[in-house]
Amino acid sequence: MIHIDHLNVSLNDKSILKNIDLTVKEGTYFGLIGPNGSGKTTLLKTIARLIPSDAGHIQIAGNDLSTYKPKVMAQYLSYVPQDTTIDFNFNVKDIVMMGRHAHGRFLNKHTTDEAIVREAMEATDTWRFAKKSILNLSGGQRQLVFIAKAIAQDTPLILLDEPIAALDVYYQMHILKLLKSLTEQGKTVVIVLHDLNLAARFCETLVLLREGEVEAYGAVEQVLTKQTLKETYHINADIREDKRIQALQVTPL
Predict the structure, then answer these.
(1) Could you tell me which residues are beta bridge partners of residue 23?
(2) CA gap 204, 201 in Å, rounded
(3) Ramachandran assignment for 184, one of left (phi > 0), alpha (psi -120 to 50 degrees), beta (any other)
(4) Nearest CA among 219, 182, 228, 212 for reference residue 31
(5) What is the pTM of this model?
(6) Could you report the per-residue pLDDT of 92-101, keeping only the tens digit for each?
(7) Distance CA 151, CA 179 (A)
(8) Mind listing the pLDDT tens digit for each residue in 102-153?
(9) Would you say residue 211 lies in a domain?
């Protein structure tokens, strides 16, 4: 689904990403982890073509990222930003309906679009405030709305930048399980997470970034080791398998 080869990105003459090489397979729940400022958001934005690269190549579905026209790109890829602040007074349903613009319909709504939007909103528990102004929602509620918009966009690839940061524990689990169900339907999810235990529980593959470079890349047990956590996060940690949830558990010491 995504192939990245020798990617380099600079912002304001400062090197942010350095020689990134990785592949995201179709249908994978793929996690980006790393300390603050390690380049996770920049990598996601570069894949979404919101930030230009200095060198290297990104391919999506076998084609170079630069060859996609914006509308075609929006049919392949949806993006949930870290900052969901919005200054326009749209109601919540209209925000989610904007996800259907990629398919040529927003102002000219189709009954199929209505059904897809309602399904996405019910899945994210946002239908209950469909008619409310986006300006009157909390930060966590806005996050749910933007996740619903991405789901309604119905793309093979979904990029999410810390989508559960403002959510309480119930909605954190709800959204991560929902995204898992989408990968089981064949969609590819690339998600930035700070909670290592949730990353270990839900993601199949992890990339650990450190100062703009790939520190570790692979299966969860290959990435979340005592050595990599010590070198990257500067913490001592106990790592064990929680048999109840069949996932690694990281305990900082």
Answers:
(1) 3
(2) 8
(3) alpha
(4) 219
(5) 0.95
(6) 999 999 999 8
(7) 9
(8) 887 555 567 788 999 999 999 999 999 999 999 999 999 999 999 999 999 9
(9) yes
